[in-house]
Amino acid sequence: MPETNRKKPDNETIYRVSKQLCWGCIGESLQFLFAHNLVRAAKWELPLMWDFELERYARWWAGQRKADCKVMHSFPEGDFKLGENIYWGSGSTWTPSDAVRAWADEEKYYTYLTNSCAVGEQCGHYTQIVWKNTRRMGCARVVCDSGDVFMTCNYDPVGNYIELVVMGVT
């Protein structure tokens, strides 16, 4: 079948295939996706779709952080090709829902009218979650050698330009 005629898989197909590939991964993937889409639904944004390429990239980056659990982005500053949220938690019990909740809690620092964050606060994780044009995501969680947790999510298309006064966030 030519590539152009292939039907893009829906979430049900994606999860069925994912479950066959990685029994333990499906639970984490669903937690990441469900938590993100709850935040988006509260702002009347379309739900995100899980993307295996983005998940693969996130797994690669989480693997790079396993030894040191260093909280750093996978792209050099200012050279983001994808949207990216990162999270670190002390101890091994932090879940995908915990990470998304922490990112979403930044909403309290975000002012929609001016498309800006409160001085000295972060809100970029939150705005990435609810960015209007973002459609796909993929995430990974790893327990680092230290016993702490590192999680990362990647988003496409990239958005989250706080300095632009656009209706990227509704």
TrEMBL record:
InterPro entries for the chain: Allrgn_V5/Tpx1_CS (IPR018244), CAP_dom (IPR014044), CAP_sf (IPR035940), CRISP-related (IPR001283), V5_allergen-like (IPR002413)
Family matches, as Gene3D superfamilies: CAP
SUPFAM superfamilies for the chain: PR-1-like
Keywords: Pathogenesis-related protein, Plant defense
SCP domain segment(s): 27-163
Keyword rRNA-binding on entry: no
UniProt-listed PROSITE patterns: CRISP_1, CRISP_2
GO terms under cellular component: extracellular region
The keyword Mitochondrion is assigned to this record: no
Domain of life: Eukaryota
Free-text function comment from the UniProt entry: Probably involved in the defense reaction of plants against pathogens.
Protein name per UniProt: SCP domain-containing protein
Organism in which the protein naturally occurs: Nyssa sinensis
